[in-house]
Amino acid sequence: GSYSTSSSSKLLFRQLFDKESSTYTYLLADSSHPDKPALLIDPVDKTLDRDLTIIQELGLKLVYAMNTHVHADHVTGTGLIKSEVPDVKSVISKASGAKADIYVEQGHKVWFGDLFLEVRATPGHTLGCITYVTGDASDQPQPRMAFTGDAVLIRGCGRTDFQGGSSEQLYKSVHSQIFTLPDDTLIYPAHDYKGFTVSTVGEERRYNPRLTKDEETFKSIMANLNLPYPKMIDIAVPANLVCGIQSKAT
Amino acid sequence: GSYSTSSSSKLLFRQLFDKESSTYTYLLADSSHPDKPALLIDPVDKTLDRDLTIIQELGLKLVYAMNTHVHADHVTGTGLIKSEVPDVKSVISKASGAKADIYVEQGHKVWFGDLFLEVRATPGHTLGCITYVTGDASDQPQPRMAFTGDAVLIRGCGRTDFQGGSSEQLYKSVHSQIFTLPDDTLIYPAHDYKGFTVSTVGEERRYNPRLTKDEETFKSIMANLNLPYPKMIDIAVPANLVCGIQSKAT
Ligand SMILES: [Fe+2]
Ligand SMILES: [Fe+2]
Fold this sequence. Notes:
Two copies of one chain form a homodimer.
Chain A: E1 11-18, E2 23-30, E3 37-41, H1 48-57, E4 61-66, H2 78-84, E5 89-93, E6 102-104, E7 109-112, E8 115-121, E9 130-134, E10 145-149, H3 167-178, E11 186-189, E12 199-200, H4 201-207, H5 215-223, H6 233-241
Parallel strand pairs in A: 3-4, 4-5, 5-6, 10-11
Antiparallel strand pairs in A: 1-2, 2-3, 7-8, 8-9, 9-10, 11-12
Helix pairs in contact in A: 3-5
The structure holds fe (ii) ion (FE2) (2 copies).
């Protein structure tokens, strides 16, 4: 989707999909700022040409390549972006253990033009998962938008059985950091497997089949998913820990 | 994507994707109206349960199941919708030759609550293709949104070699009916194969690799695509001509 906000700053927003890994990459820019500064959340290496082309066509200046966490299912585009667009800074949480130019933590703000994203620590899927939320101010996009990574998926959530995952921690993260946002906050996850593009906090608080349960039930659901070992994990995680440069990972 | 407009009427908007046929289905509703009347554009039979579930969860009342044209790559969900939700009316163009409850033509308006879609005839991919555009009025969504079917795809367009297609007609349709809309009009196509979710009239006017060409070049591009015969066409077209009821098509 894409929209303009009613505030003086104008958010340019694009949701981009990688069919192979069912990953959503998000492009945000302040299109009312003379530099049109832009950022990508969760870029994928294989779709990078598409993403850099649209950034160029829209006349944007990419400043940040950000990840919500160290992904296990695809190689981040961050490393390639940095080699192709040298001024771009990579951003990830300190707790992720990954290499990046900028480490962010709970409460940090990432500014692009007159717009900003607020960082919320939402560990549980991995130890270093964060959620980026648009600012809580009258000149920031309304309704707010939360880029939840794999913490909250639409009617689901990320698995918690590797990479320092913990179902107990995920439950606490979502209930304290995401479900406390206003009901109309838009939820933009890192993945969707059913063709949904967006949800809201109100919807997930009411209809998420896992996270609406009490904590004990949630933990039991997560302990009994019996998911296969992720195909890409042994390639993706080492690469993503060094910012997506696969050659450095070997 | 999803957003609320700044007008008094509040558009609830959802873009939904069918991975198999790379089809986008669009859900629109007037969420500020007491009945929350809703419509679906280009529903797919296989994703109908998903679509009806979200409509129910959001508390919407589905009133119209609309098609931009008789699709050749998937069976419309219209027929199934009508059997599961009896009050829903199907909508398609008169020129499509398909069966429906309501036939629309150039200039017709389709109201849902206090919001409406305007019908524009955009033949060329098929003889009966139409584009639905949100209203041009201060109480309608800003920027406007154009649901272009296969007339304009993001950086592409639908093929013109069957179903009464004509590259000459498609070129004229797009340039007279779509590219004349304001540059910030959002383009929501019936398909995308590269993971794009939205474009704008301004972007396609500048960067569409086919439609930016002069008419003769466009016709020559379209005459030389050498596309395979569509796998689903012999099932989908007969079914879609009778509103998506496959059994009636045999
Ligand atoms: Fe993940
Ligand atoms: Fe089509």
